[in-house]
Structures are given as structure tokens and as C-alpha cells.
Amino acid sequence: MVTLSEVLTDLRTESESLDRLVSALDDKDWSRPTPAPGWTVAHQIAHLHWTDGVATLAATDPAAFIQQLGAIEDPYTMVDRAAADNIAPPEELLRRWRNGRDALIKVLSEKPKDEKLPWFGTAMSPLSSATGRMMETWAHGQDVAETFPERADAQEHRRPTDRLRHVANLGFRTIGHSFLSHGKNPPAAPFRVELSTVDGAVWTFGPEEAPNRVVGPAEDFCLLVTQRRHPADLGLQATGDDAREWMTLAQAFAGPPGGKREPAKAKAQ
């Protein structure tokens, strides 16, 4: 079983990889549009800085976090507004992001493992909070890296690593949540997920005899649950009605359903 220390180490490594990429960009590149509609590179890093700060607040002052949560006027536009509000000149934004993520890692590392931390619509253990931050950092890092297909360092950042297991694990654990966030009842029957990695390993989640099955590349599964790709553009195979429906609903993050990506073929037409 994965430990909090392992996830925090991988979160730091993932963050540092993205940091190296964005640190090498010039000011004009920070304003370049990313695959997320309406978001530049600056929006992506501002979002990570904001969510790290909110996660730190939830861990250090739950009452203040809940008060802040109650003051949200429109949860469907909250993320976009927060990203825009936290944009700053690249050097300043980098400094804030670095300090904020270091503070969060320190806070989570000192939390009792069974403590419940409030979050958007749920409560999480320090391990789950760290896993969520790992998922977000990887997903938004994908958006940044895909913005620069001409850069070797961007393609290196996109290379799949074993750190994806945390994202895959979260994607599996949030299958029921994906249905709930779309106003649907979670399926009663269990799911089995079998994922192949680039180094030939196979990650499995769920009972082997489960009637609902999702099989395919680990990276594709992670791109699906973070809503970075449309199911039609991925090499995932779903067996069972519930599994096929879940492919259209997959969402590893908390909060309202995200704005899912269009199929690549539809964009090309």
C-alpha cells in the first residue's frame, strides 16, 4: 500500500519537473494559450498555486476553509475566476507557486494519517489530499507541455513515469464519484481496471471477476480521468454497460463536472 511519504515525494518530483519546463519559458510563452479553453500557461500555474493554497488552508484551518467555501457564489465559474485572479508576472508567480507547494507538502507530512480534511463536497485524509495534488499537477503539466510541441523539454516532461500510478489509483477510486457529480446513481456492480505501462508492467484495481471492465494503457486512463482526452481518442476498452457509460463521465477531481475535451477528429474537421 502506498504511503503518504511516497506520494509527497512523487508530488515534489512532478512539481519540480513542471517547474523546470516553465522556468525556461520567456514572458511571451507564459501568455501562450494551452489546450484548456481560455487558459494560458500563466493560468495553469496560477491555478496550481491557488489550489495548493486552498489545500493548505483546509489542513491548517478547517473552519476558515469552510467559511471560504460557503462564500462561493458560483461553483461552476470558481476555478476559472481563481486562476485569473492569481495571475502575476512570471517571476512572481513562480515564487508564489514554489513557496505554496513547499508549504503544503510540509503541512501534509505532519498531519495524522487518519485526520479528515475538508474539501469541495467531501473530506479527505492527508494521503488523499496529496494524491489529489499529484493528479492536478500532472494534469495541468500536461496542458503546459502540449502547448509546446516544438520543445524537447516539454516532450520530456510528458513522458509517462511510475508516478502515474497515483493518478490511476485516484481515477479508479472516484468511479462512483464520477456518476454522482453528473447527477447519477453509482453502479452497484464493481469495476475491474487493468492498465499497461510503457515498461511492460500491469496495474490492476478491483476484483478480477467484476462485470464492468476497463483495459488499456495507463497513460490513456490518466488522461481520461483528468479529462485531458475524449474517450474516442484513447486506447481504452470498456466492457459492461456501466463501464461504457463511465467512460463518458470519468472525473478524478472534486466539484462540478468539468468541460470535457472534444474528440481530436471533430476539431480537425
Could you name the key traits of this structure?
alpha+beta; 6 strands; four-stranded mixed sheet; 9% strand; two-stranded antiparallel sheet
Number of strands: 6
Element-by-element helix/strand order: HHHHHHEEHHHHEEEHEHH
**Could you say which overall geometry the principal axes of the C-alpha atoms support?**
globular
Structural class: alpha+beta
Radius of gyration: 18 Å
Give the averaged pLDDT, no decimals.
95
Helix proportion of residues, in percent? Answer: 40-55%
Q: Could you give the distance between the termini?
A: 46 Å
Which sheet architecture does the biggest sheet show? 4 strands, mixed
Q: Which strand-content bin applies to the residues?
A: 5-15%
So how many helices?
Answer: 13
3D structure, described in words:
The protein has 269 residues and is of the alpha+beta class. It is built from 13 helices and 6 strands. The protein is globular and about 50 Å long.
Architecture blueprint of SSEs:
Elements (H helix, E strand, L loop, with lengths): L3 H20 L3 H4 L10 H20 L1 H9 L7 H8 L4 H20 L7 E3 L2 E3 L1 H21 L5 H7 L5 H10 L1 H7 L9 E6 L5 E4 L6 E6 H8 L11 E3 L1 H7 L16 H5 L1
Parallel strand pairs: 3-5
Antiparallel strand pairs: 1-2, 3-4, 5-6
In short:
The chain is α+β, with helices and mostly antiparallel strands and 269 residues long.
